Amino acid sequence: MLRRFFDAAREALRRYFVAGVLFFAPIGVTIWAIVSIIRWLDNLVLPRLLRVVVPGDYSPPSIPFLGTIFTLLLIVLIGFIARHLLGGEVIRFWERLMRRVPVASNIYAAVKQLLEAIFADSSHTRFNRVVLVEYPRKGLYAVAFSTGPARGIVQEKTPTNVVNCFLPTTPNPTSGFYLLVPEDQLIDVDLTVEDAFKLIMSAGLVTPGRPAPGEESALPAMPAPETPSGA
Prior knowledge:
Blueprint: H1 2-42, H2 46-53, H3 66-85, H4 88-99, H5 104-119, E1 129-134, E2 141-149, H6 153-156, E3 162-168, E4 176-182, E5 187-188, H7 193-201, H8 215-218
């Protein structure tokens, strides 16, 4: 009797602990990420600029969000200058100069292409389709994202029309493989990009349309209604 009581208490404690983790962890990680980004932006430009402008041993006041607002306004100002005041020749000259610098040229090109893919308005540069591809061998399937048909030399060198696909890794979807897959070998999946990322990051534990693991067992089960005798 006593053992059953301790077993039930331990199981209930485990359920409530899992429920607490599932509730608190996403909120805690989100708050931590936002606070970290704000602190980084606060100390990115303004404190360094004040130390250069104000001579002597000067320590700028620590006012929350002031450095973040200043950094964001500075980025907007630089964007306005680059778009309206600097001509296309100046920007192209800067890009040609960066391409001639060893190591820096590769970093510059990679970062620029990544940011253009994130912020571009064109649907050709976004993850616009969730698909299944046979990878790493025939008979095995992996979730991938299509960014549209391939163009240029890679399309000309392939015997059939191929599609640009990004195959992310688990649990870190920021790394992965770039694949050129024939269109007729893609299997469309009725998932949003967000749901597909959840599926990949959880290694299949969080399936769209189903509760996250632990949500069903996090709360104590309700007792089944008693069946009247003689029914």
